[in-house]
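2024-03-11 09:14:02 INFO receiving multi-entity request
2024-03-11 09:14:02 INFO entity count = two
2024-03-11 09:14:03 INFO echoing inputs for audit
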Amino acid sequence: MNKSILIVDDDQDFSDLLKGIFQQANYTVHTAFSAEQGFELLKTEHIELVVTDHRLPGGITGTEFLAKLREIGVNLPVIVVSGFLNDEAIRELIRDGVAGIFIKPLNIFSLLKKASLVLEEEEKGKGFSSNGQENANVKVEVGQVEGLSETGKSFLQKARNASAFKRNLLLIGPNGTLFEEIARDIANMAPEEQRIVTLTPGGVNKERLEALFTGESGEQPVTLVLANAEKYSPEEVDTLVELGDERGGSESSLRMIFCLSQSVEDLYDSELIDEEFYLFLGTNELNVPRLKKMPEDLLTIAKKEIEKQSPETVFDMKLRSLLLAHDWPENMVELRSVIVRAVTLAQPMAPQVRHFAAALNPANEGDPSLNDARSTFERFLIQEKSRYESALDLACQS
Amino acid sequence: MSKPIILIDDEEKFAVMLQELLKAAGYEADFCLNPEEALERVKEENYELVITDYKMPQMDGAQFLEEARKVNPDLPVIMISGLMNMPELIKVANIGVTLVLEKPFNTDDLLKYVGRFVHPSASEEVSAMAMDMEASEISFQQDTVEVTYPSPANFLSDSSNENKRFLESLWNSANAYRHVPFYAQVGAEVRQVAMEVMEWTNSSAEGEVVRIMLSDTDAEITQNWLLEAESVPGALLIDLRDSEWDDETRKKLVDWIKFVETSGRDLSMSRLLYILPTGARFDLDQLELPDAFKLLFAPDCPILLSLRERVLDTATYISRGLEKSHKDALGKSGLARLLHYPWPGGYVELLERLNAIKKQLDAGEQLDDEGLKKLLAERSGDESMIEGELDVVAYLKRRQREYILLHREAGEDLKDTILRLGIDSDSVSVEDVLENKQLAFPEVIAES
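2024-03-11 09:21:47 INFO inference complete, emitting structure
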């Protein structure tokens, strides 16, 4: 398909010249003789590139035209052609993201080359985003981890690779891991739409499992998420193994994600699972890192969670340092409960750092200052005043 | 992880100035004096922003930009330059420069653009300032910190709650571990820390404190000393503050620990104290140490705050350092001047200035406020820290300024910071607070 271009220039001759050149190069050309006309055409026509003169009728300059376009949210590439430009105007054009600047007399070939280069790059850029859209059903985060930290990034990569599993996936995480959310995110990465069914120990029986494969959606692939997978009774394990042997395998429509607190090797060695189950589970393991090991992700997750609970909260450097310094032995579960506690402690105000500090260390929850509506800043100055007075006494003592 | 910004300028002075400007606004930046080297680094590291000069001897900004675009077409590049002519400007515009600022440029403009491309990262939080902030403010038991170490401390001042907490943490670590890390700034009273630990280990604190720079730990002379010394001192300072906290430093540290632990020396009565640079984020798991050695390493890293955060300790050191006759000669206002000064050079600067004061007074010379100011300025060279009245309001204004700067978000307008910190803008003018004309909470003074 022809590329579509808008030429904005009040000089009829020059505009015709440009039009001819671009038409010869197989562009669909629209022409406007003023900025206003240009804006109108941008509304009605499909345009991919704008080439504009710098001096336009009505006293408007190419710089202003570009700035205006950006202001109304038009991010099309713009090439400015001009007889003269002062340095300040060039800097402004750069600031507003001009795609190219050409000074008359014009080198036609470099203008055409630039135009095609710019459109090529736009295409590439779009290519990225449309790829992004194709991948949109492959969620870019797993258990809220976006891969902003090194550890988080490697986890996300491993999760992506692991998501193509055919039969069993072993999800191993530390205390307080939100297994179900992670398992769901991974299951949802599958190209086919999945039914995701979570089972807990005591909830596995033959009838229930059989029911999954009958009825209207019986044909649709199922991912079973088995919470607390080391806690199932021998009978339940038998049922699962039987079902897996019957329906699992490469062509199957059944996959299972087992949520475990330690590796199957360790579980087997400490006799928490028997040999049959051990062999059935396989070795396709995915380890969830500790929250503490993913500082950048921790901050982003905390920010989102806090916004959900109390949008007024100031997520400043102080709060971030506090969150980073904590060890988070109970990981995500702890993070969520700390946030809820801090919000509760501060009610009806938005929580301040001191409320988070108290939520992290319950021994401080009785501190009367938590109900103090004065800001931390004011309290700081009060404290500093009394310190200064004591210090002066101390220095004068003999 | 690398820093988010790389600065390129063949003039080191300008690069350092820019680095400091960015740092003050909360951004970490590397700098490079040679654009060719910078290109290599851009290839290797994931920078989020380049800020470069245009005229450089090895290649100009346009050439650099062209090469950089090949590596990363989307990398934002800001050019800061003296006069560029029109063809040069058009050239860089056509290669896709992000922004061109002409020297002298408006720093707020620059910061505004930097803020658009660079987000504050977790690693930035651990600047020395953030540490001061983190450790000093959350005090729930305002006036009482319960301690189990032998108190009062003999060498390090523990008048401040901050130092009480520091010593308590150090005491707990020293009781259970042989290798004990802590953070401190250059000029901090680290020898006093070591002497305190020596007391705890029942070795004589009178003996000289041995301080080893980490860079010396693989030197034969250091290793021989350790192997041949009559006994290993009760506390040994290993100073890491002159190194960047990078792989190389970590390897050196690991090699040193392995050397010490396999040296055959009896270390049971010794504590090895590691002084970490305040910008480092220490994580024991980053050290490739055998587990057996890791178990000897204290997991906590207490922070010895900068002296400006601990006015009570400053007062203690002043009181200790001067005799009654000196204090009488200085008078209350002279002593107040010493408390008002923020002591950027830490304990080392304080001690040095106290000696200078004593020398002058002992020689029978007078020291009025002007004289004191001059004496303080001799070393710091920055008179802005020495000006001002000598009352509690003036001191609080200094502290309020420091507090606001500490709480500034990356790229944030200071006025916004002040509003965000919650002042009552109906009764207090933000401008006045910003210009240090007024306290953000005048009632703090009125209350008493």
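2024-03-11 09:21:48 INFO post-check: The mean pLDDT of chain B is 86.
2024-03-11 09:21:48 INFO post-check: Residues 187 and 346 of chain B are 5 Å apart (CA to CA).
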